[in-house]
Amino acid sequence: MTLGLFILVNSAAGWIWGFNNRGFPRALPDGSAKIGGLNLSYESLGIVAVLLVVVGLLFLLFQRTKLGLAMRAAAVNPESARLVGIDVGRTLMIGWGLAALLGALAGVLVAPQLFLDVNFMSGVLVYSFAAATLGGFDSPKGAVIGGWIIGVAETLAGEYIGWIGSDLTILVPLTIIFVVLLVRPNGLFGSPEVVRA
């Protein structure tokens, strides 16, 4: 259903605004800095800084606030959450709004590196799904660490495995998804689901 809605919204956006590629202004300044012998762009450093701030704020939200605890309870067990007085519908609505906000932030950070069109996030979805699969779907920390592992693995594969090249680097996250689902379906930091009989 999610994939169907994704295709529907993308098609509607293309019908309204067109399917042509467009430029997108950079949110972070151009240039680079040398850190420990590495030449890192300000954009990359800014994206990492924004990521760390967002992860820290999400950690504080989910671990230290009543709203975060209510969101976790409504996601894990809606029936029990209702019994203790949590408005599950309102809480899930806030969760979807937060997800939309984070998706928009990701789009703003990624759009300057890609051409802006209605399907420009479809490639990013493969990498984000691979990161969540590797780190664990129920672990935000695992998703961040999984994303870094995916990025490093793809860069190293494109650099050192001759036949992959830049066009076939998408095989790296797809292979990682396949292997993780076969070997450890919960991911590196995911907790196994316990079902009582």
Contiguous helical run count: 8
The proportion of residues in beta strands is under 5%
Largest sheet: 2 strands, antiparallel
Mean pLDDT: 84
Describe the structure.
The protein is mainly alpha-helical and 197 residues long. The chain is built from 8 helices and 2 strands, in the order H-E-E-H-H-H-H-H-H-H. A two-stranded antiparallel ribbon has the order 1-2. Strand 1 (32-35) and strand 2 (38-41) form a beta hairpin.
Keywords:
197 residues; two-stranded antiparallel sheet; 2 strands; mainly alpha; 64% helix
Q: What is this entry, summarized?
A:
The protein is mostly helical and 197 residues long. The chain has helices at 2-17, 42-64, 66-76, 78-83, 88-110, 122-135, 140-160, 171-183; strands at 32-35, 38-41. The chain has eight helices and two strands.
Write the layout of secondary structure elements.
Elements: H1 2-17, E1 32-35, E2 38-41, H2 42-64, H3 66-76, H4 78-83, H5 88-110, H6 122-135, H7 140-160, H8 171-183
Antiparallel strand pairs: 1-2
Helix pairs in contact: 2-3, 3-5, 6-7, 6-8
